[in-house]
Design goal:
Oligomer: heterodimer
Strand order of the largest sheet of chain A: 1-7-6-5-4-2-3
Number of helices of chain A: 14
Order of helices and strands of chain A: HHHHEHEHEHEHEEHEEEHEHEEHHH
CATH architecture of the largest domain in chain A: 3-Layer(aba) Sandwich
Distance between the termini of chain B: 16 Å
CATH class of the largest domain in chain A: Alpha Beta
Distance between the termini of chain A: 8 Å
CATH superfamily of chain B: RNA polymerase II/Efflux pump adaptor protein, barrel-sandwich hybrid domain
Strand content of chain A: 5-15%
Number of strands of chain A: 12
Largest interface: A-B, 8 and 10 residues
CATH topology of chain B: OB fold (Dihydrolipoamide Acetyltransferase, E2P)
Largest sheet of chain A: 7 strands, mixed
Helix content of chain A: 25-40%
Strand order of the largest sheet of chain B: 1-2-3-9-8-5
Number of domains of chain B: 1
Radius of gyration of chain B: 13 Å
CATH architecture of chain B: Beta Barrel
């Protein structure tokens, strides 16, 4: 049986539909080693791999790329994702042949440059965060969380403390925090926010006992707010023997200004792809290094890069791999996403300490500028000076316009929509993070569009319900997409 | 907002029918979640439940949520229809979209319809 997926409006056929029998892109030369055929039982005739010339393939993917919205093409205020512009010098550095043409299994003497870069990046992340030691292994933010939670569990168990099974997570935390704790087999206890968007201290105190593994704190939280009782929150958890994990996904608000390690965070993960500008969205790759305070340094994933022979006045040190004695083990094949590490290193080197501080200051300034321009039109439930992002309600009294309608309409104005329906503690949430790389002109254009859309919601609500109108694909049926999953546009003959 | 008076309610938006022992998600819960696209019942028949234990995982186009046991007791039936028709949770939250049936549940600690209605109204702001 062969089924073809029928779309209401075909913008670009699938590569299978473009296939034409006999077309080829590459003609392989005769092999320079003896040919060995695949075993007959592994050969199959019913695998309709597409047959195309190189030009067909290039045009297909070029057309698809033109349908994309990207941060290189426009404003992308996707809250929590820190979609800042990624300087192109990062790409140049990641493509230097000395980095590009290496293999992680090469003898360390032949990759000293790469190891020196990793070592220096570890040192810089320690300096930026105030942590005592850093591992670069985790593949992305949530993987960094999992690594951190495994370290917390190992620390308690190592001390013979087996009663601790409870992870405290505020309702303003990132959604991955409960998932990471759940994967480690811990019981997640949600801590509510108070009326100013802080962790509710009384609710926290009520949960703090000898069964607490720790607290996973996103600060600034997903409302974009800095916790006004941060030191007391940390002290409360420490007093019951728990550890405090910092979700560093919002580090862009703090970098160069505040060091989480200085005020008592025990663990922090970094999202290099957010704070330190490496391309993300569309699936990565990210990079989620983990930093720990001195009492947890022995538990870091193994190996980390260290100096194994000190240098002299004339001779550079020899970099190699060292193995923390109580390590939770390896969490990633080889040494993490090395190409992302090169880009983050480049970004940090380019900015320096003062430049990084300016990143955070401008990220916070831009978010507050937008908040101030929108606050009289859009209800902002926890409305105080925010950090790098803020959350508005995408609804109006007496109107049936919703956050989704506003998001879709923004696409008609050529803006990427903000994150919507998160955090869950705000009705019809629109989570707006402009980042520091946007000019006042761009911010004003976005604010103007948001104000026009609010006006349209009053005068022409159907315009919003049916949006977007000016994009290659109109309003998609998200319910059908989620309920009737079709991941394959052809079906093998025998199924 | 539909809040039948013969049912009892939790602050986590489950309903409990003291006469049949059936448990489900309220109309308020389904309207907050919007279109539900996936449901998984996390308990099995014969299992002894404690109030507050997760009984089902529910996903909509907007969010993922868990449903919790409103009362302690023994699971005597689960609604296997829901796995194939999660949209029932939107269409018929108090009828065909019941999640599980619990035997021996004590509803005295739960909210009545009036108290639950007040609780829902408070959360709208």
């Amino acid at each position: 049986m062969t089924e073809t997926l029928t779309l209401p409006q075909v913008i670009e056929p699938t590569i299978f539909e473009l296939s034409s029998p006999g077309r080829t892109g590459v003609t392989f030369p005769e092999p320079d080693v003896p040919r060995s055929d695949l075993p007959a039982e592994l050969l199959r005739a019913d695998l309709p791999l597409p047959e195309l010339a190189e030009v067909d393939v290039i045009r297909h993917f070029m057309h698809l790329s033109h349908l994309n919205y990207s941060v290189d093409g426009g404003f992308y205020p996707l809250g929590s994702c820190t979609m800042k512009y990624n300087p192109k010098i990062n790409e140049d550095m990641a493509r230097l042949p000395g980095f590009l043409f290496t293999h992680p299994l090469q003898p360390i003497e032949t990759v000293q440059g790469s190891l020196a870069l990793m070592y220096t990046l570890q040192e810089w992340l320690k300096e930026i965060s105030g942590m005592a030691a850093v591992s670069l292994q985790p593949a992305a933010g949530a993987h960094g969380e999992l690594t951190g939670v495994l370290i917390m569990r190992a620390y308690h168990r190592d001390r013979g403390d087996h009663r601790r099974t409870k992870m405290l997570i505020p309702d303003s935390a990132h959604g991955t925090n409960p998932a990471s704790s759940g994967m480690v087999g811990l019981q997640v206890v949600q801590i509510p926010s108070d009326s100013r968007g802080n962790v509710d201290l009384n609710a926290l105190k009520a949960q703090c006992d000898e069964t607490v593994v720790g607290l996973m704190l996103t600060n600034p939280n997903t409302l974009g707010l800095f916790d006004e009782h941060l030191e007391e929150v940390i002290r409360t958890v420490h007093e019951c023997g728990g550890l405090v994990y910092g979700d560093g996904a919002n580090l862009n608000a703090l970098v160069g200004v505040m060091r989480p390690g200085d005020i008592g965070f025990d663990i922090l993960h970094f999202n290099l792809h957010k704070t330190f500008s490496t391309p993300h969205g569309g699936g990565g790759p990210g990079s989620g290094p983990v930093g720990v305070a001195a009492h947890l340094a022995d538990y870091l994933p193994s190996p980390i890069v260290g100096i194994i022979e000190e240098g002299t006045d004339d001779l550079a040190p020899l970099f190699g791999f060292i193995h923390p004695p109580r390590s939770i083990g390896r969490v990633k094949a080889f040494h993490g996403h090395f190409g992302v590490l090169v880009r983050a290193y480049t970004y940090i080197a380019m900015h320096g300490a003062e430049g990084l501080r300016a990143v955070a200051e401008n990220a916070v300034l831009n978010a507050n500028y937008l908040r101030a321009r929108l606050q009289d039109t859009y209800h902002i439930p926890y409305n105080r000076v925010c950090m790098h992002e803020f959350v508005a309600e995408g609804r109006f009294p007496g109107s049936d316009v919703r956050a989704l309608d506003i998001s879709k309409r923004l696409m008609d104005y050529d803006f990427h929509p903000p994150t919507n329906y998160f955090p869950l503690i705000v009705h019809e949430a629109l989570m707006i993070e402009p980042t520091e790389t946007e000019s006042k002109r761009t911010l004003d254009a976005f604010a103007d569009a948001m104000l026009r859309i609010a006006e349209e919601a009053r005068t022409q609500p159907e315009l919003l319900h049916e949006a977007p109108h000016r994009t290659p694909v109109g309003r998609v049926d998200e319910v059908k997409a989620a309920r009737d999953l079709v991941l394959c546009c052809w079906f093998p003959e025998n199924q | 907002m539909n809040i039948p008076s013969h049912l009892k309610y939790t602050k986590t938006d489950e309903w409990f029918d003291p006469s049949s022992g059936k448990v489900g998600l309220t109309d308020y819960a389904q309207s907050q979640l919007s279109d539900i696209v996936f449901v998984e019942i996390l308990v099995s028949e014969g299992e002894q439940l404690e109030a507050g234990k997760p009984i089902a995982s529910v996903e909509s186009v907007k969010a993922a949520a868990e449903a919790y046991a409103p009362v302690s007791g023994k699971v005597i039936a689960i609604n296997s229809e829901l796995v194939n028709s999660p949209e029932l949770l939107n269409k018929d939250p108090y009828g065909s979209a019941w999640l599980i049936q619990i035997e021996g549940g004590d509803a005295s600690a739960l909210l009545d319809a009036a108290a639950y209605e007040k609780y829902c109204a408070e959360r709208e702001h």
